[in-house]
Design goal:
It is a single chain. The chain is mainly beta. Helix content is 10%, strand content 49%. A 14-stranded antiparallel sheet has the order 17-18-19-20-21-22-23-24-25-26-27-28-29-32. Strands 10-15-16-13-14 form a 5-stranded mixed sheet.
Length: 673
């Protein structure tokens, strides 16, 4: 009996030893073939694993036909099936290179070589190559046909133009962050958190966004974690900003001489104070006093990413502190990014993307035009240190511009949250269902404090305080199915169909009042002249969309999309609009007759057609309704109130449609030898 038990134990131990064999190997980088230390190696379906040493080598117990998962931050995850005990050599590919072949096209991705529409992509590595405080500066000059426009003030929101002005009034493109359309300023995003930016430039590509795609679409994807050993990253940059190409103004002597000539030529008596212009010297450089050289800017960035098994995460925080080149202007921003994804079951994956931002923009009341018109003969300060009244020059009604920029205090604070949660169910290997719920919450307030001052020619007799509080909440829900399958001898077909709904609610309240001298600058201390204002508005959008991509032998490519939008911004008779598009491409370089052409690697001809719209071109949520305005008038010597229509109702208010026909284009790529 004991012998039988002993024999069974020996048999089991031998079986386990044969199954759990020792496997060794080395991991190398595909770009330079150098050993990679710290690569995470996990036995798929178990919690067992190891990491590579300083020379990239590893050793692990792995049964035959088991699967090893190799992962490292910045590299594509790799799976290796165990087939024997011989040492293995694993080469990992940079994730940047791999991602360069994949393009986000709206509600999905597509291989770049199979695109039939005009889409530009900028990788995160390219965005991070130069330090920039916001996405506008980081993207400037990196995507053909995309123009970035900014006032230059610290924290000012950047606007984009894609292939020029496409619609009247509002020509801004739609911006989508991690699948959620965003109305908040994009300067609240930290460029270090961005993995890629795709720009849908023509109607055939942007029609999938229908009523909001007339001016193009900018798709921003934030960074995700990679399973494996945790990766900690810290970044810091500092710099100085100075004005360039500053207008050279007349000095005091030159100004006095010109003033004398102007008055004399008009038959007027010159100013006696300017009798001897040469004695006035250089005087005051008002523009130079308003603009400062070497305004500091610094940003700190810390991120941690990684994952284990079937879960990944990415978390980051950043702080930006920027002083403006105009005195008393600044911008401070605090950003937190939280992204994670988990495969809870074999066919079910959940994840979320959250961006939290708080920023502040203090400034004075400055005016460049008034500064240029200020009198260089007058000083900035009086002998007692107070601001002089000498701003007026040829344009008389100009207060001391340095005093105005210093005395008045304006500040804007905002708190933004942009987040989404999603679930993806793999129903069949070629059929997936994805549902996303998103929210964008904006809370921002402004405070304008104008203390009493005696600056001529327009003094402020009483201190005044104005405050406004704003709230905007936008909800998003989209659900869609994706069918993706390759048919033998019949090509590759991808079909997407789904629906989306979005709702926005906005309201604000504001108050303005005069504050007695010496009292704290709070509205509760107002002494009269107070004004209270407020309003609210709402809009909603319901959409149905579909897209089909077909590829035959990697030579003939076809894309067709259609979207039907119903918007609350239009009257009962015109709430719905349909936006179709179609595009096709022929990859000539794959034809047999082109194989002898060795100096061209890829040659593709594409043509497209699309219809897009703009539901926000007039900036009004209720353009179909009458505009009623309260009025006060006197009737029989008594004050009376009434409400009058200042704009009539228009139930026939139509969609603003932008139609773009994409011309034939040759897209050659030369082979580099």
């Amino acid at each position: 009996m004991l012998l039988r038990v002993y024999s069974c134990c020996v048999f089991l131990l031998l079986s386990f030893a044969l199954r759990a064999q020792r496997l060794t190997g080395q991991v190398l980088s595909g770009s330079d073939q150098k050993p990679m230390a710290g690569v995470s190696i996990q036995l798929k379906g178990t919690g067992e694993g190891t990491v590579t040493d300083a020379s990239g080598k590893f050793s692990i117990q792995a049964p035959p036909k088991s699967v090893l998962i190799f992962s490292f931050e910045g590299f594509e995850q790799l799976e290796w099936t165990v087939r024997g005990t011989a040492p293995i050599r694993v080469v990992m590919t940079s994730a940047t290179k791999a991602l360069g072949d994949i393009v986000v096209v709206g509600y999905g991705t597509q291989q770049k070589k199979d695109l039939t529409g005009s889409i530009a992509k900028v990788d995160g590595e390219e965005l991070h190559s130069l330090p920039a405080p916001d996405i506008g500066e980081a993207l400037e000059g990196r995507a053909a046909g995309v123009e970035t426009i900014s006032s230059g003030a610290p924290g000012s929101n950047v606007s984009f133009l894609i292939r020029g002005i496409g619609t009247i009034n509002d020509a801004s493109p739609l911006i989508v962050v991690d699948g959620v359309p965003e109305d908040a300023p994009v300067n609240n995003l930290n460029p270090g958190d961005i993995a890629s930016v795709e720009v849908l430039k023509d109607a055939s590509a942007a029609a999938i966004y229908g009523s909001r795609g007339a001016n193009g679409v900018i798709l921003i994807t934030t960074r995700k974690g990679v399973a494996g050993q945790g990766h900690l990253s810290f970044g810091f940059f500092a710099g100085f900003q100075s004005p360039t190409s500053v207008v050279k103004m007349l000095n005091a002597s030159q100004y006095a001489q010109l003033n004398n000539e102007m008055l004399t030529n008009n038959g007027l008596t010159p100013n006696p104070a300017y009798a001897n212009p040469d004695t006035l010297g250089k005087g005051t450089d008002w523009l130079g006093a308003l603009l400062r050289k070497g305004a500091p800017m610094q940003q700190y960035f810390l991120s941690y990413s990684g994952g284990a098994g079937k879960s990944t995460f990415y978390v980051s925080g950043s702080v930006l502190n920027q002083q403006g080149i105009v005195i008393n202007t600044a911008y401070r921003r605090y950003t937190v990014q939280l992204n994670s994804e988990s495969q809870v079951f074999r066919t079910l994956t959940f994840g979320e993307n959250v961006t939290l931002t708080s920023d502040e923009k203090p400034s004075g009341s400055y005016n460049i035009q008034n500064t240029l018109a200020a009198n260089p003969v007058q000083p900035i300060y009086n002998s007692d240190g107070t601001f002089s009244n000498g701003g007026g020059g040829i344009v008389p009604l100009v207060n001391n511009p340095i005093g105005m920029a210093t005395i008045n205090q304006n500040n804007t604070r905002s708190y933004d949250a942009l987040g989404s949660v999603y679930g993806e169910w793999t129903i069949l290997p070629y059929l997936k269902f994805r549902s996303t719920a998103g929210i964008q919450a904006q809370f921002y307030d402004t405070r304008n404090w104008t203390p009493q001052y005696n600056l001529q020619p327009t003094p402020q007799d009483t201190s005044a305080l104005g405050q406004q509080y704003n709230k905007s909440i936008t909800w998003l829900l989209d659900n869609y199915l994706t069918f993706d399958k390759t048919f033998p001898r019949a090509g590759h077909l991808t079909v997407l169909a789904g629906m989306e709904s979005q709702d926005n609610q906005y309201n604000f309240v504001s108050a303005y009042g005069y504050i007695p001298t010496g009292e704290p600058a709070q509205l509760i201390n107002n002494s009269g002249g107070n004004t209270i204002n407020g309003d609210e508005s709402e809009w909603a959008l319901v959409s149905y969309l579909a897209r089909a991509n077909y590829s035959w032998e990697n030579k003939y490519l076809l894309t067709a999309t259609v979207r039907r939008d119903g918007s609350s911004k239009f009257g009962e008779n015109n709430k719905w609009g349909t936006f179709p598009s179609a595009s096709a491409a022929w990859r000539i370089s794959q034809e047999s007759f082109f194989k002898d052409v060795h100096f061209v690697n890829d040659l593709k001809i594409r043509i497209g057609y699309g219809v897009t719209g703009n539901q926000s071109f007039n900036g009004n949520n209720y353009p179909f309704a009458s505009v009623l305005t309260p009025n006060l008038y006197v009737f029989n010597n008594n004050p009376s109130n009434d409400i009058a229509a200042t704009a009539p109702a228009n139930n026939r208010f139509l969609w603003f449609i932008a139609l773009m026909v994409y011309k034939l284009r040759l897209i050659p790529t030369l082979r580099v030898r």
